[in-house]
Design brief:
Structural class: alpha+beta
Strand content: 35-45%
GO molecular function: acetolactate synthase activity; acetolactate synthase regulator activity
Shape: elongated
EC number: 2.2.1.6
Helix content: 25-40%
Pathway: Amino-acid biosynthesis; L-isoleucine biosynthesis; L-isoleucine from 2-oxobutanoate: step 1/4; Amino-acid biosynthesis; L-valine biosynthesis; L-valine from pyruvate: step 1/4
Order of helices and strands: EHEEHEEHEEHE
Radius of gyration: 19 Å
Subunit structure: Dimer of large and small chains.
Oligomer: single chain
Largest sheet: 4 strands, antiparallel
Protein name: Acetolactate synthase small subunit
Amino acid sequence: MKDRWIALYVENQVGVLAKISGLFAGKSYNLKSLTVGTTENEDTSRMTICATCDDITFEQIKKQLNRMVEVIKVMDLSNVPIHMKEILFAKIKKCSDGDKAECFRIAQAFHVEVADIGEDSVLLECKLTDRRINELINLLKLRFKSIEVVRGGAVAVESISTSCR
């Protein structure tokens, strides 16, 4: 079992997201991440999906998605160079002045933005790779007693060169 990435171009219509997520639910496939947004063409949306599955299941998923009328194109991103980022908001609550200073140091080290500061809290905002986000969350859990994390799911695009981040 490993993470598999798929990008879909789909018709931008009511119910398409429900139909695609329903396909995953109906077959008991686990969705780790799903993001959707319109493209340069208002009639088309692009989905980035991460499913945790084995090789056979992944092939079944791709075949079933290709059969759907609303799906314009299915792209397997698992073995191609891509640029991928995920958005994260991390709220560190019940902070002392020393905790806030530590938040600022961590933000600087991870190249993330301090989006908001309260009397006893700090809000970090970032777009990083899945691995770096996991590292940041683990560090925040180690250093602070009260954190709240909101992850937005990854988006990915095929690389236009051979190098990617």
